[in-house]
Amino acid sequence: MNEKQKAEFLKLAEKTIQTGKNTQVKEETGLEALYDVPVTVTAVLGKTVMPIHELLRLGPGSIIELDKQVGDSIDIYVNNRLIAKGELVSQGDRLGISMTEIVKAQ
């Protein structure tokens, strides 16, 4: 993706977040070729530090306490690049992310 395409993509994403609506990407943006490109999205929900002996004892059903709570700010990465900030939200017994800010490309 070249710099012009990145700028158009970020502008569209920012507009979508500001309006709170799911806007359709128009064909004249020239991004149709990217629609089927797989990307890895990672949301960092928190961190912790533990000694190796505790790590080796972890198994199915183990609980790892993180440093974040519902309402805290989290980072959202696409292909290991920070692209947005969000807020951890809870809805019933599910966790989700509310995107709050698009991070400008560096």
Shape assignment: elongated
The Cα radius of gyration reads 18 Å
**Residues in helices, as a percent range:** 10-25%
Number of strands: 4
**Overall mean confidence score, pLDDT:** 80
Cα distance, first to last residue?
15 Å
Low-confidence stretches: none
Q: Given the helix and strand composition, which structural class is it?
A: alpha+beta
Spell out the helices and strands N to C.
HEHEEE
The fraction of residues in strands falls at 25-35%
Major sheet: arrangement of strands? 1-2-3-4
Number of helices: 2
Largest sheet: 4 strands, antiparallel
Descriptive account of the structure:
The chain has a 4-stranded antiparallel β-sheet. A hairpin with a 2-residue loop joins strand 3 and strand 4. The mean pLDDT is 80. It is built from 2 helices and 4 strands. It is of the alpha+beta class and 106 residues long.
Give the topology.
Blueprint: H1 3-19, E1 41-44, H2 52-57, E2 73-78, E3 81-91, E4 94-102
Primary descriptors:
four-stranded antiparallel beta sheet, alpha+beta, 2 helices, 22% helix, elongated
